[in-house]
Design goal:
- Belongs to the carbon-nitrogen hydrolase superfamily. NIT1/NIT2 family.
- By secondary structure, the chain is α+β, with helices and mostly antiparallel strands.
- The protein has helices at about 20-35, 55-60, 70-80, 165-175, 190-205, 265-270, 275-280, and strands at about 10-15, 40-45, 85, 90-95, 100-110, 115-120, 125, 135, 150, 155, 180, 210-215, 215-220, 225, 230-235, 240, 255-260.
- It has one domain (about 10-275): Carbon-nitrogen hydrolase (Nitrilase/N-carbamoyl-D-aminoacid amidohydrolase, 4-Layer Sandwich).
- The protein has seven helices and 17 strands.
- Helix 1 (about 20-35) runs parallel beside helix 3.
């Protein structure tokens, strides 16, 4: 990895999460130890890193509200022990005041403090050409807040998986000062093959932000298959890292890639193509 002077390093962790949260937590702990050993300032995990289970009845046994769930506290303890910031990817929790679930991301600092949380806004309700049918909204409630947080890598904007297809969210994040954007995901194989790389590059180009997209990969215990190809994309749209193309066999239960987040790359992209100054559609009445 070429590292520009003073550029902080992000670790991008690719997992094949299953239906046992304790096993998934052990994988996360090992990955955080590896990330810290390489000097990463922050580690990023995939969507549903703690529990990936399509069987809603079976997974219901693990559903709790955040105040009662052991998962955020377990991640906070790991961040504190390994002295590293982390983005959890996401986890399923019960919404406050409801029996519906939320798909929630957390950013936790190296002292074990939760700095921000975000609930996925857009629900994955689709029927794919392969016949696969997904109705996320049957169990999950969408969030209603745009979230940003300051991190060692810069000002980070939150999104999760299907949010990727809604560029207006990313425009709002940039208007809020985003310098990099997290897009943890569990893309299906058909949609990943068709859309994953172009969508991530488009979001990076149109926002002139670094994009960090940690992904689920492989065949999971609940029977689903996910696309993988965890990516880091720079503000010019160049793919800096594709974790699936590394020569790691994933024997530790995860694959990991490292990328330097160079603020000068963002400045060069924004100076070359000053979208914020040129944008006039905000003044058009529809």
């Amino acid at each position: 990895m070429q590292r520009p002077p003073h550029a902080p390093v992000a670790a991008i962790v690719q997992m094949t999460s299953g239906i046992d949260p304790d096993a998934n937590l052990r994988v996360i702990d090992r990955a955080l130890a590896a990330a810290a050993a390489e000097g990463a300032a922050m580690a990023f995990f995939p969507e549903m890193s703690l529990l990936l289970d399509r069987d809603r009845q079976r997974s219901a046994a693990h559903m709790q509200r955040e105040a009662d769930s052991p998962w955020p506290a377990a991640l906070a303890d790991m961040a504190r022990r390994h002295h590293i910031w982390l983005h959890s990817g996401s986890m399923p929790l019960l919404a406050d005041g409801s029996e519906r679930r939320v798909n929630r991301s957390h950013v936790i600092d190296d002292k074990g403090e939760i700095r921000a949380r975000y609930d996925k806004i857009h629900m994955f309700d689709v029927t794919l050409p392969t016949g696969e049918n997904w109705t996320e909204s049957a169990a999950y409630a969408g969030g209603d807040a745009i979230v940003l947080v300051d991190t060692p890598l810069g000002r980070l904007g939150f999104s999760i998986c299907y949010d990727l297809r809604f560029p207006e969210l990313y425009r709002a994040l940039v208007d809020g000062g985003a310098e990099l954007i997290a897009i943890p995901a569990a893309f299906t194989v058909p949609t990943g093959e068709a859309h994953w790389h172009p969508l991530l590059r488009a979001r990076a180009i149109e926002t002139a932000c670094h994009v960090i997209a940690a992904a689920q990969a492989g065949t999971h215990a609940d029977g689903r298959a996910t696309f993988g190809h965890s990516l880091a994309v720079d503000p010019w749209g160049t793919v800096l890292m594709d974790v699936s193309l590394q020569k790691d066999d994933g024997a530790a239960g995860y694959d990991i890639g490292f990328v330097a987040i160079d603020a000068q790359a963002r400045k060069r992209a924004r100076d070359a193509i000053p979208l914020a100054r040129s944008r006039s559609v905000r003044n058009i009445e529809i």
